[in-house]
Design goal:
This protein folds into three domains: about 140 residues, Rossmann fold (3-Layer(aba) Sandwich); about 160 residues, ATP-grasp fold, B domain (D-amino Acid Aminotransferase, Chain A, domain 1, 2-Layer Sandwich); about 50 residues, no CATH class. The mean pLDDT is about 95. It is globular. Strand 12 and strand 13 form a beta hairpin. It has twelve helices and 16 strands. Helices cover about 35% and strands about 20% of the residues. By secondary structure, the chain is an alpha/beta fold. The strands form three sheets. Strands 9, 10, 11, 12, 13, 14, 15 and 16 form an eight-stranded mixed β-sheet that branches. It has a four-stranded parallel β-sheet with strand order 3-2-1-4, with helices on both faces. This is ATP-grasp domain protein. Keywords: ATP-binding, Nucleotide-binding.
Length: about 375
Amino acid sequence: MKILLSGTRAPVTRDLVRAFAACSHEVHGADSLATASTARELNSFTRLAPPAQNFAGFARDAQALVARLKPDLIVPLCEDIFWWAKAAQGWPLFAPDLKSLMQLHSKFDFVVLADCLGLPVPETRRLGPADRATPGDWVYKPEFSRFGRRVVIRPQQAPPLAHDPKNPWLQQAWIAGEDVCFHAVAHGGRLGAFAAYRSSWRTKGGASYYFDPVETELSRALEAMAVRLAASLNLTAQLACDLRRDKDGRLWLIECNPRATSGLHLMAHDPAALSAAFTGGGDATLRSDGQAACVGPAMWFYGLRTNRLASWRMDIGRARDVFRGVAGAAVSDTLGFSVRAALAGQDLQDFLTADMACDRDLTCS
């Protein structure tokens, strides 16, 4: 097969390219940002217009690329998935239709969907222009957002929230407990790959850079949720969810990312099975082998600053560095993007997502 990966700035690009290449697939890449650390193993790379800032240009670039490559499968890895779905003209996207994508992406609509399926969710409501935030055991966040950006957790005073009709604020009950996540790859409503994990290593913005598989019993409970979600929508897609596990062990679905997340790193030990999860060639469900994974440069840059040296040594010693062999290129990418972010007056996370971030319902425009 000829496979096109887009959003190749994502670190999971390396693991997917290796998985597809191991099965003799031809892998090409596309993105509006070029990264040395993930592009070197691609058959080709094409620069696209930034979809969130120039959708018309992106749509033209995507159409020309698809016409030239004639890929058998297109796998968007980042929030470019929403723009690909909006631009698609019968293309072989590894994604559901735009309406289903937006239902999963909306932190409100997803909670409604999960509740209808009988899955536990916190009390959640969408705030209108006349609504005011209140202090207490609440979480406030935009309906469309990522990496915990702009989230207000358990405010002691009422936070000022500027209303945006295209991206309103949500008020969600805070659940005491621990964060857990899962990543699933579904094909025709059936799970082809699944991994559940937690992380105690995060940036201040909330982005994880260490991915530690959970114990078997908890993984099974989380997988049952993923199975219900995938089957109910007959999904051919990636499905990544954030949850809270309370003191009684009950799991609460918080939000969903219908795109690649770092949980994919926990499936890289079996390249053939990971490839089959996307191409539909496997019958079994690939699961984690129990080894943790980490973004090595981030463990050194962010992790050492936390002054948890004993834990740092133990955790980095038992994890697979997803940038092993290309650490120099990854550091070079980060330094280059950091300079560009500073010149643009943005922090690094915002810079790396602004050109493709989907902060509204694309079915309404």
